Amino acid sequence: MLEIKLSAIKQMEEFARNNPNIISLSQGGLKVDAPTGEIKDSVQKILETNKADYYGQGSGLLELREKISEVLSKKYQTNIPIDQIIVTHGCNGALTNLMLLLLTEDDEVILPEPAYPSYTNLARIARAKPIYVSCQKEDKNKISWHLPVEQIKSATTNKTKMIIFSNPSNPTSTLASKKDLLQLIAWCEEKGIYLVVDEVYENYVFDGEFQSITPFIKTSKRIIKLTSFSKDFGLSGWRVGYMVLPENLSTMAYIMQDSLFICPTVISQHAALAALNNQHIAKYFHDYVKENKNLVIKYLDPLRKKGIINFQNPSAGFYTFIKVPEKNTTELCLDMIKDISVSLVPGGTFGPTSKDFVRICFARNRSILEEGLKRLTVYWNKKYV
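Now predict its structure.
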């Protein structure tokens, strides 16, 4: 039987779901009240017709793919043909498609780590082997992360088929530099390795410059972009995302999607289309989450100055990845649920070198986030001072 593990993200979130008194800062869903009425009104109008009652196109609704092409082409000053866009069942639907399509037994998938745990499980489902490469820079006085291009090159073997990571990063909320991305793109093209970049947090950039791989896809046979509508528009429950992939892969990826899912959920695609036509919603979420990020630093920086915890300020995304004195934080997270009714995620779920970290998701209603931070501050001061 295939051996895969349920992510600790889901385990901690189950505790929170089963107890309304627990403040969940664990699962990475955007839980912020926002003006999404235009999306819901548009969906309601669709429900009054039969447009969502039948199978849709296997690669996604034409009008949605046209809108995605328009948005991406304008944003990144390129030209993305609609036949290189496949709408998927969330970002994980794209991942599942790609890994089953491109990987075979004993292939190796390099995961710059800490890494979103689904990358590991889906590689194993495809009978491939995940290979971790640490992104942590060696520095005794501070926590810092980077895209470890030279270490990735050293980890490459004749079995390496794919490299996958998120940019901005989940869980470190850092950005890959343009220089590192360009070097990695060149390396993958030279070695015939697929480079899959999950850009689901691309619109949550607060400090620094985000370099998308989107402009490089048209001239490549190896580069693939993944994203979804979960983060930008708060549509995580609707399960709709998309991938942009080279022309040589689009037909087979379409056939794979037809085999796995028939088609993406039609009503969700109409919600996504309405979202793209109401970009002010994404702007609202960005600004709200940015203020939340500042609130996290306000509460946690005094603990960092005391040497109790350590973390790099988030420059993008909506997480803070915090190093604590424990060597393994699973028991710590369970104790925090019991003692202060706050759920975080133990770092070990993101890879083997992150066991002494915890992840906070700050994409929450501000009053809930602030109460959770107050409880954490009291808990860590009591525990470590």
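The chain has two domains: 8-35+281-379, 54-278.
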